[in-house]
Amino acid sequence: MIPEIGHFALMLALCLTLVQGTLPIIGAQRNIPNWIALAKPVAQGQFVFIGLAFFSLMYAFVAHDYSVLYVAEHSNSDLPLPYRMAAVWGGHEGSLLLWAFILSIWMLAVTLFSRRLPADMVARVLGVMGLVSMGFLLFMLTTSDPFERLIPAAVDGQDLNPLLQDPGLTMHPPMLYMGYVGFSVAFSFAIAALLSGKLDAAWARWSRPWTTVAWMFLTVGIAAGSWWSYYELGWGGWWFWDPVENASFMPWLMGTALLHSLAVTEKRGSFKSWTVLLAIFAFSLSLLGTFLVRSGVLTSVHAFATDPRRGLFILAFLVVVVGGSLILYAIRAPKVGLGGRFQLVSKETLLLCNNVLFVVAAGSVLLGTLYPLVLDAMGLGKLSVGPPYFDFVFAILMAPMVFLMGLGPIARWKKASLPDLAVRLRWAFVISVVTALVVPFIMGRWSPLTSLGLLLAFWLITTIFYNLWSKIKRNPDAPWRELARLPRSYYAMQVAHLGVAVFVIGVTMVKSYEVEEDRSMAVGDTAVVKGYTFRFDGVVDRKGPNYTAREGFIHVSDKNGDEVTILHPEKRIYEEQANPTTEASIYPGLFRDIYASLGEPLDNGGWSVRIYYKPFVRWIWFGCFIMAFGGLLALTDRRYRFAIRQQPAVGEATDGSRDAPKGAPSLAMESKH
Amino acid sequence: MKPRHRRLIFIVIGLGAVAVTAGLVLNAFKNNLVFFFSPSQVVAHEAPVGKEFRIGGLVKKGSLKREGDGLTVHFVVTDTADNLNVTYKGILPDLFSEGTGVVAQGRLKNGVFYADQVLAKHDSKYMPPEAAAAINEAKSKEINKRASTTLMPDTSAGGETL
Description:
The complex is a heterodimer.
Chain A: H1 2-20, H2 23-30, H3 33-62, H4 69-74, H5 81-86, H6 92-112, H7 119-143, H8 167-196, H9 201-232, H10 243-268, H11 272-294, H12 308-332, H13 347-377, E1 383-385, H14 387-407, H15 418-424, H16 426-443, H17 448-473, H18 479-485, H19 488-513, E2 515-521, E3 526-529, E4 532-543, E5 547-557, E6 563-567, E7 570-574, E8 580-583, E9 585-587, E10 592-601, E11 607-615, H20 617-635, H21 638-642, H22 667-670
Chain B: H1 3-31, E1 33-37, H2 39-43, E2 53-59, E3 65-66, E4 72-78, E5 83-89, E6 101-109, E7 112-119, H3 129-151, H4 153-157
Parallel strand pairs in B: 1-2, 5-7
Antiparallel strand pairs in B: 2-4, 2-6, 3-4, 4-5, 6-7
């Protein structure tokens, strides 16, 4: 009964999208207040019905209802409760439902936090989101119904993929989807602005916090996925340039470009049409990511579906969304106007470079991800693009990017001077060069790339501190008051950039100084890796709730022979699926991880064992979380609470641009040029 | 220097940087394409020598042998028509087993494929698509061969194969 309610709720939600996707938009174009007013209640109704469907499915999982096909395929009576709940998004149909549910959460958020926006704008935004929702609900109801019954019911379920039975992975998809789907808000704002023809700074201001939230979730989601693959797959790698990872990374790259471009549009009124285009691309890449992961074109842990109808539907949907918005863009964008002018050397130019680099990076990832698929689809042969390609591309694109990141926050809007920047930052440069040369010396091994990575990271850190110091210098008597006066968004930017530096340090150190060894070890054997002695003490059998495990004991001691830790790597066999999985055991540390996992049992009673030493590996994820925290800080900036109340483009002169140089003309005046 | 000239120089430098970057990216792309070959193609000398490529197929039953060091393994990958000996040093993935599909990346030396990477899929339900394709191709060739031999029994006597 409950699954039928869920199914029916989905249909009702689809009916609501028919209203939401049409009447409010038409109402806004023709100025019919009653139709405009429909947008919010209808969107809230959608949230109620999709939520009902989502929790009906969750109920079916919790209550072990194996008469539902999807539940029978992804659950088991021995599966612990938290994983039964997370199993809702453990397969294709359920993840789509999660997608739709998160979209409805975003719609609800738009209805709640948009009281200060003009009603017609909200109507358009919700209308566009309604159309997106319509596409997904149609997709679900026609090709991937999560509530399909299995008659007769299965006695027990086939269990969730063992790799997904992990705390890290339960949170990974919701986070990622919050990001993916969140870009639909930025996209809807962009389309709404194109529809209305009012592409002004106010639009950028409204759109910016939504983009920031989506970007934040996506950052955390990708980091969580990377962390998961590090400890769960048992290979100790944190990024593989796997198409599934690329699918989530491309929207991130485009979204990051969008964030920076929105900043220019809001503060200076420039880059307006470019920003709109980025918003369209960011969401299109999110859809493409969904297509890649969900349609079965890639066969990997994420690709649950093998039904070509689904792939065709998403592809058609993608064509409609991308094609439709680009046509609209082509019609409307020429009328947008140029906005504030700027000199060649200016903050605007630096941000433009940022945008170009990010877009090129996203394009390169797209090339490397799609080329093998396209070739395969056309029957021209099978090939894959090796990770060295991606590594190389990112090295040559991100090196100038991080270098410019040091300059960007310090350069002035409109007109900056290169000699002036060079003089101001000379010490920052000297300090970072020295550090980049000294650290490899201490670590005992030098390579050009190690120094380059460290140089960039320290360049970023020193410029951030130089920037803070130059703010204090304006009023040396009361440094704290000066610092307290800086807007929250300024700190947000610096924190996010600091996150990048931490990330770069992590990547550089782990790539330069990691040690990976495969050993075959009999009981009592020892191996010395990076000064640590690993002694294999044998394996015992252990029983988990829905698996049996062989648990290894590896005693780790340091140079003095003192015990550091005992690692317990496991090899698990999940009863229902009979797949062996590897559970790595990690002794974490801020500056290094000690990592061990079991390979295979050998004839002599020993095992093959992986022993890894990973310096600074945690900094990679810390860096991502610091970046995301920067996003969080940006949201709390008072200008979002303050300026929106005053209608478009009036409040800007008084507020928000304090970190812009003195003497920059106010935006309200600037946008008239 | 007039502002106009300066702007021109900047634009030229910018375009030059973009062109160089694009060239480097495309060059790296070309160099890192890893092609896929089935054991039949390798046996027929279609695979490159000294360059990395991928092979795929089934791990032949009973072919897995482990050396005394516990880490070096030898196995045979087959697409049911032809076999290829593979050597790998390291720990095999969880889902690697005899009789299932596998994809390996490495180089060919004296008829033996030295793998530096062995990939099995994350999920036991699915066959790696490359491995499946290799087997299907070999099977369809087999069918064609049989069809041609039954239709034209004379040519098979000449020892010519497709």
